[in-house]
Amino acid sequence: MAQFKTKVDLYLKANSKTWNNTKVELTDLSDGNGVFISSWSYDGLAEPTAEQIASYESAGNTAETLAGVLDKRQTEYLSWQKQMEMIYKDQKNGTTTFKDHCDKVRSDNPKE
Q1: Number of domain units in the chain
Q2: What confidence tens digit (pLDDT) does each residue in 10-38 have?
Q3: How far apart are CA 35 and CA 4, in angstroms?
Q4: Cα torsion 47, 49, 9, 16: sign
Q5: Which pTM was predicted?
Q6: Contact 56, 2 (CB under 8 A)
Q7: Which domain covers residue 38, as residue numbers?
Q8: Are strands 24-28 and 35-40 parallel, antiparallel or unpaired?
């Protein structure tokens, strides 16, 4: 199940707005009712209804899955220093270590 914040963010993006902590505030009272919008002040955009938020469930799941894949890829690509070392050695030795490394990271972590 997609997080409430993700679905609100997708609603904003679909309406050409970006997340701004001074214009939207989410609250969870820990009463079992979940997260809700406690403050909304976007000019020209009405606060989304529960139905509108729910309509972003599938897109939210996709966005969160993709974010997880990209985070894992970023870790596995290694530091920029190690990447530069691979590139330098490839140029010096005529090898494809860097390309092979990047291909493996992408194949191990597909976007789907």
Answers
A1: 2
A2: 999 999 999 999 999 999 999 999 999 99
A3: 7
A4: negative
A5: 0.75
A6: yes
A7: 1-74
A8: antiparallel
